[in-house]
Amino acid sequence: MKTETINKLCCQFDLADLTLTPIHTTIDGAIEEGYLLCGHCNRIYPIVQGIPIMSPDDYREFRLEKPLLERWKAYLEGKTVDNFRLIATYDRDL
What we know:
Blueprint: E1 18-25, E2 31-38, E3 44-48, E4 51-52, H1 62-71, E5 80-82, E6 85-87
């Protein structure tokens, strides 16, 4: 996915802008792997082999996305994904 593609995409549910987090890029700067995040509902859309996965939740399978999310833990900054939304993880011992 070319980085300028982000300007043509929005959240499929609330039409809010998305932010791009690239994880792997090609030599020419195309996004090979990463994710798009909705700033309004915190819905996360993975980018796999250069293709953003922007299907409605009913057509997504979390078990297929889970290995990617496990690999991307460092990029999620301590947050987890629940129901295809990025949520803060709180330390229960506090």
